[in-house]
Amino acid sequence: MLFCLRCRKPGAGYEGCSVCAAQGVYVNLAPPPADLTGYDLGHYRGGLYEWRHTLPIAADVPPVTLGEGNTPSVPLHVDPGSGPLAIKNEAANPTWSHKDRGMSAALTKAREIGATTVVIASSGNAGAAAAAYSARAGLDCIVLTTVGIPPVMERLLAGIGATLIGYRTGADRNRMLAASVRELGWYPAAFTDDRVGGNPYGNEGFKSIAYELARDHGDELQTVVVPVSKADLMSGIGRGFQELHQAGLIARMPALVAAEAATGAAFTTALSNPDPEAQERTRVERHESLAWSIGNNYAFFQGLDVLRVSGGHAVAVDQDRYLAERERVGRRDGLFVEISSAVAIAAAREIARSAAGLTVAISTSTGIKDPALPGAESSLTVLEPAVERLRDWGARNRGSRR
After folding, report:
1. Among 70, 92, 267, 347, who pairs with 315 as Cys (CB 3.0-4.6 Å)?
2. Which residues lie closer than 8 Å to 257 by C-beta, 6 or more apart?
3. Over the stretch 345-363, which tens digit does the pLDDT of each residue have?
4. What is d(CA 297, CA 391) in angstroms, rounded to the nearest whole number?
5. Distance separating alpha carbons of residues 100 and 95, to the nearest angstrom
6. Using DSSP, how many helices (H) and how many strands (E) does the chain show?
7. Dist CA 255 CA 164 (whole Å)
8. Please, are residues 311 and 245 in contact by the beta-carbon 8 Å criterion?
């Protein structure tokens, strides 16, 4: 069962709440929270399947896993007088990003419902994770992307057997994603409507980050800073902390903070307005930036919800600051983070300067995937946005694993 985070009414599918959409507010669906009463963080070994019942997936379905989770918290050097600062290094996952947790849950759900073909719109981490976990599950994976995908991602996707199809614009790509789900019956590993968050079953995989942070840091943990686009990651982490707090396993929720590039700061803009209804309808014009995988035109409801519940806020970071932060953690801490992660670390460093407790930034992936790095020339196939072309190309070029 799924329900709407805003109106609390039951729903189904991957396109969000139809009731709220009719009111002009696009809201993702979510499963009911898991009951952690009687559980012990001291015995939690990490990952998604240690506490299997927290996932909305039948208990008898074998998990689709590559050993994701239980990633390290790495302390960072800080300036004198600052509070402690660390990163949760999600690059330690099998395809080097936090998306592995979400895709493990999403593909296990795909296995439960008998899906045969997985589709995702992505230019980076989500596509790589969807392809890897589809391969593990024995399912075909179609990755829809746009011109300009980093060459390293092309090579990675080819190496794990995904079918990669490009479109000239993000709007074309997203339209074909929705058509493939509705007309071809493919399983969406992430979003189908670009105004709503991602796969609601996959998003539950991110709760394990909260469980691990609570286990590792206890009451010292004060703030968790997350780079955001649709806020799937931040929402999932927040749901994990809510479950822990409701069960009495933590005394309080840490504040969740949305970190955005200043060129696409929808949450920062929304929270500058004291009217909650106006916040939910916030639209900004996002401009492309070097932090290419975050930022959005919308302040997604699931992100606003967790910011409100946790007493958090949003921070917009300009390019000079996040590029300087990326260089700093590389040279001083030995960590080569993706630029989007540097946005969160820069915001977290500013918060830590006046914080007594621990501030943790979620470092989502490695900088090796960033498109600013040199790579081989693209060999991406670009299609016209017609579902017939997509169906025929997929049929001719994907390698069946069934």
Report:
1. 347
2. 223, 224, 225, 226, 307, 312, 313, 314, 315, 347, 348, 351
3. 999 999 999 999 999 999 9
4. 30
5. 7
6. 13, 13
7. 38
8. no
H or E stretch covering 165: strand 163-167
Tell me the whole-structure pTM to 2 decimals: 0.93
Q: Which two tokens stand for residue 25?
A: 């507010």
Tokens of residue 268, six digits: 């920062």
The answer to whether residues 375 and 368 touch, using CB atoms and an 8 Å cutoff, is no
Region 222-231: mean pLDDT is: 97
CA nearest 126: which of 156, 89, 83, 81? 156
**Contact by Cβ (8 Å): 134, 118:** yes
| For range 27-40, the mean pLDDT | 97
pLDDT of residue 170: 86
Q: At how many degrees (to 10) do helices 319-333 and 339-352 cross?
A: 90
Could you give the 3-state DSSP secondary structure of residue 278? helix
Residue 316: name the closest of 269, 364, 255, 380 by CA: 269
3-state DSSP assignment of residue 101: helix
- Statement: residue 91 has pLDDT above 70: yes
Q: Using one digit for the tens of pLDDT, what is the confidence trace for 310-336?
A: 999 999 999 999 999 999 999 999 999
What angle, rounded to 10 degrees, do the helices at 151-159 and 125-137 form? 0
* Residue 152, pLDDT above cutoff 60: yes
DSSP 15-70: S--HHHHTTT----EEPPPP--TT--GGG---SSSTTGGGSSS-TTSPP--SS---
Query: In the structure encoding, which two tokens stand for residue 96, read together?
Result: 């080097």
Instruction: Give Cα separations from 344 to 139, 223, 261 (angstroms).
Output: 34, 12, 9
Q: Which tokens belong to 155?
A: 């090579």
Map residue 186 onto helix, strand or coil.
coil
Q: What is the CA radius of gyration of the chain?
A: 20
Count of alpha carbons within 13 angstroms of residue 61, beta-carbon side: 21
